[in-house]
Amino acid sequence: MTELADALADALGASRVDHLTRLSGGASRETFRFEADGRPLILQRQRAGDVRDMGVEAAVVRAAHANGVPSAELVASSTEPSEIGSAYMVLSLVEGETIARKILRDEPFAHARSVLAGQFGTALARIHATDVSAVDGLQEQDQVAMYRATLDSFGHPHPAFELAFRWLDAHRPASTRRTLVHGDFRLGNVMVDQHGLAAVLDWELAHIGDPMEDLGWLCVKAWRFGSALPAGGVGTYEQLIAAYEEASGLTLDPDVVRWWEVLGTLKWGIMCIGQATAHTSGVARSHELAAIGRRVCENEHDLFLALEGRW
Length: 311
What we know:
Layout: H1 2-12, E1 17-23, E2 29-36, E3 39-46, H2 54-66, E4 74-78, E5 88-92, H3 100-105, H4 110-128, H5 143-154, H6 159-171, E6 179-181, E7 190-193, E8 196-200, E9 207-209, H7 212-218, H8 237-248, H9 254-280, H10 287-293, H11 296-307
Helix pairs in contact: 4-8, 5-9, 6-9, 6-11, 7-9, 9-10, 9-11
């Protein structure tokens, strides 16, 4: 820790770094909280094995923040591993909660729950209006083709997923816009305080695509965390869409959002297969990955409900 604190002080030009504390983090990031000359900050450092260009993510964070998306301010970043051991971003500290169970159930977030659906719609409209012309390296992704290839690579039959692919192909809406897409906008990847949305986090999956991808992903049943409310577990489709329309000046087709919700459910099911495969193949032996693999059947069930119109 002392070595990392010294390296951070050098990278930031700070006279001292104090209170360096490791926080929980995802598979691709190590996250630390610290103070540099008394200013509270967050460090996200890329884990070994993650091949994504963190410089692209940093540029997206900067562009989104400049466009008024509720987000942390990018303080410093580098893809040069010699500075602090790997590519990193230093961000301003945003206080709040990310754990979905607490946000959906605890009394301090009661008011937040009443306004989050609308705030999510507004934030997504701002994300999709962000000018990314100066962000080099953002990839454009066809989500259907990507996950079709991913499922095929596993070499195991999944008839429910094949049925979903067939339905998606038969009902695919025309794409009218290509914008910045967050790629993983949901509870768990946002910071929430007593007033509602404090910051959008975790931009590593950002890409160019159809903006309705983000709305559909937010409404996937898995990201409701047991709530009966479809929009991220905190609101209705109507609340989410109305806020997005007001902020963007556009009119949305709810059926298009729901097409993307079906695709999102399929994607999450395929991701669950991938995480289970990482465990069973020995690439990353993990009880957590094995447990996630057991959720494949949940997504098959959710797809049957969705295709029957029982959202």
